[in-house]
Amino acid sequence: MATLLRSKLTNVATSVSNKSQAKMSGMFARMGFQAATDEEAVGFAHCDDLDMEHRQGLQMDILKSEGGEEGAESPLEGDIHYQRDGTGPLPPSASKEAGVCSELSGQGKPKITAWEAGWNVTNAIQGMFVLGLPYAILHGGYLGLFLIIFAAVVCCYTGKILIACLYEENEDGEIVRVRDSYVDIANACCAPRFPTLGGRVVNVAQIIELVMTCILYVVVSGNLMYNSFPNLPVSQKSWSIIATAVLLPCAFLKNLKAVSKFSLLCTLAHFVINILVIAYCLSRARDWAWDKVKFYIDVKKFPISIGIIVFSYTSQIFLPSLEGNMQNPKEFHCMMNWTHIAACILKGLFALVAYLTWADETKEVITDNLPSTIRAVVNIFLVAKALLSYPLPFFAAVEVLERSLFQDGNRAFFPNCYGGDGRLKSWGLTLRCALVVFTLLMAIYVPHFALLMGLTGSLTGAGLCFLLPSLFHLKLLWRKLLWHHVFFDVAIFVIGGICSVSGFIHSLEGLIEAFRTNAED
Questions:
Q1: Residue 176 is inside which H or E element, if any?
Q2: Contact indicator for 131, 366 with CB cutoff of 8 Å
Q3: Where is each Amino acid transporter transmembrane domain found (predicted)?
Q4: Domains in the chain: how many in total?
Q5: Closest-CA residue to 326 (of 116, 87, 70)
Q6: 208 to each of 201, 212, 215, 434, how far by Cα in Å?
């Protein structure tokens, strides 16, 4: 009797503890990761946590349904694929933890509303990199404005068709979700000959975009500080080194809870800064240079502008996880519509108003055009936001690299970088520090915000937002597509391919020239 009573008390205590942890996790998920995404890279970091919770919940549902049947055989290794990397069953401990969470929460994981999902997408496509859009108008005129609208329409459409690729019709004619992530869709398209090729391509593109985002944060930090205090005997390269020294502790990050607490404040501060810039521009409305906005393009630099605009809209990589965690996935299409309409209007107005104010003097980062009296204050806030945003894409890139190269079971290329006690080995920590130093070296040798942003948008942005979604949609669902859907997919693939190649070539030429110039200096 005493043993039974002790067991019940232990179970009650464990339930209370787990319930409080589940509530705290839900609070962090809502107030931290979901309400705090700064750029598209934040979506990647958030994607891992959502995927883990979502797939563990599905894993426990399958285990319970199979375990509830009498005489049912235990699942074989590799039979259950609803987990983080889709390569085999979860460890017993992970399954038990997921089971406890699913029993306590009732749903297996915290769900988000359409408004919360829209907040994620809005922050991903309305982030700090909109500061480069006026520079795109400088080289594109009205065609640049049209491209902002066109990119919004295309990215909204490709986001929807990417989610459609997650579903298939079962034997009963019902539409069911059979895939969980962008990687799963890519692998399904390359199966059965190359079942993991598609996922590796998506992972490589994801890593490139994340690392380039980190480099851009270092570049913009050095640029803003240098232009805020031009009288100090400190060069832009030196400011970048100082920023990297501040960021070096990112190599020791174990999770993002500490960083996520500041992210919401940073995002709100960024919106305030945008409003301040627009307010200053409106105060000079009488001097707007409407005659400078023409139907012309700079043939050499406009392709770079394409990459800048596309990069500012990238959010596709984390949409599958976001849709899978919505309370009502049927509201996903409506959410995508209003978020991209809002983004299109705000970006177009911001870019046009800022360009009309400074015309041909528009700089790569628009805040550098502000008067010195307010430039320093605004730029310091932006630098703080950039430094606090850096850990999110950095941590996501590290997770993808570690999972792909060091923790992928028998398919890992290198030994596990974690010891038996779960601690990071010294050489693993060294590799993390090397990644931070690599972002610094790139920022020093190529300190050009617009060129780096254009290159990233043309290479990975166009691929993840234009080319791959349309290609996957045609490959997986071509038998059920109407003719106009086929036409749209083919047109997006062709146009996206042309823009991607053109922008990549011109951005790469500009970067090579800048690299040579800096090397000579």
A1: strand 175-177
A2: yes
A3: 111-507
A4: 1
A5: 116
A6: 11, 6, 10, 16
Q: How confident is residue 40, by pLDDT bands cut at 50, 70 and 90? A: very low
Task: State pLDDT tens for residues 253-272.
Answer: 776 665 555 566 667 777 78
User: Is residue 380 in some structural domain?
Assistant: yes
Is 414 within 8 Å of 448 (Cβ atoms)? Answer: no
346: which 2 tokens? 């705000």
Tell me if the pTM is above 0.90.
Answer: no
Q: Greater confidence, 383 or 403?
A: 383
Count the neighbouring beta carbons within 10 Å of the beta carbon of residue 273: 19
Tell me how far apart the alpha carbons of residues 353 and 351 are, in angstroms, rounded to a whole number.
Answer: 6
Q: Which of 189, 186, 184, 212 is nearest to 201 (CA)?
A: 186
CA distances (Å), origin 286, targets 135, 171, 283, 353, 405? 21, 66, 8, 12, 58
pLDDT at 27 exceeding the cut of 60: no
Helix (H) or strand (E) holding 392: helix 391-401
CA pseudo-torsion sign 226, 393, 364, 352: negative
92 belongs to a structural domain: no
Mean pLDDT of 442-461: 86
Amino acid at 222: G
Q: Which two tokens stand for residue 223?
A: 């640029």
pLDDT score at 506: 84
3-state SS, one letter per residue, for 338-356: HHHHHHHHHHHHHHHHHHH
| 3-state DSSP assignment of residue 237 | helix
- The C-alpha atoms of residue 437 and residue 303 are separated, in whole angstroms, by 30
- Angle (deg, nearest 10), helices 197-228 and 426-445: 60
* Cα radius of gyration (the chain): 24
Contacts of 190 (CB under 8 A, 6+ apart): 196, 197, 198
* Phi, psi at 168, each rounded to 5°: -145, 165
Tokens representing 220 are 């913009």
Report residue 503 as tokens: 């922008």
Residue 103 lies in a domain: no
Tokens 């108008």 belong to which residue? 137
Cα separation, 204 vs 77, whole angstroms: 27
Q: Which domain holds residue 516?
A: 121-409+424-520
The residue with tokens 């319930």 is 19
pLDDT at 99: 34
DSSP state of 418: B
Assess contact for 394 and 436: CB atoms under 8 A: yes
Residue 213 · residue 37 · CB < 8 Å: no
Residue 335 lies in a domain: yes
Helix, strand, or coil (residue 373)? helix
- pLDDT digits over 112-149, tens only? 888 988 888 887 787 777 888 998 888 888 888 999 99
Is residue 6 helix, strand or coil?
helix
Check which CATH number belongs to the domain holding 360 and give it: 1.20.1740.10
Alpha-carbon separation of residue 117 from 37, 69, 123, 176, 226 (angstroms): 11, 37, 10, 21, 37
